[in-house]
Fold this sequence. Notes:
Strand content: 35-45%
Order of helices and strands: EHHHEEEE
Structural class: alpha+beta
Distance between the termini: 27 Å
Largest sheet: 5 strands, antiparallel
Strand order of the largest sheet: 1-3-4-5-2
Radius of gyration: 18 Å
Helix content: 10-25%
Number of helices: 3
Amino acid sequence: MKPGEELPSLTVPITRTLIIAGAIASRDYQDVHHDAEAARAKGTPDIFMNILTTNGLVGRYVTDYVNGRLGRNAILRRVSIRLGVPSYPGDVLVLTGRILSVDERAIENECVIEISVAGTNRLGRHVTATVAVASPAPPASRTAP
């Protein structure tokens, strides 16, 4: 892995079930995430995905990539996220990413990778994020106690 490397895209169909399940799982009981009539009464065309579900999808995208490349259990260290347009049922969210930096120094026996992520749907940019993920350093780079 090196700075500038592009991650393969991840396509996520945004279903009504995903939106509602994500809201329930994150204990976000705002009616705009599960009640279409209430959402319309508040000026939106339908229910929409909450930020915590988006955050989870971004985290999954990054850790799945790092785990697949390095074969180790990646840990999210920092997620900075900014929402844009909403994601409604029937949308398709496409996540893309690019490696910003790789710190391979075996500080605390881990490698820290910073990745920028963008997610778009039919309305435009849904999410912009910067994620720092740590992966245990390979055994050869670990220092003896």
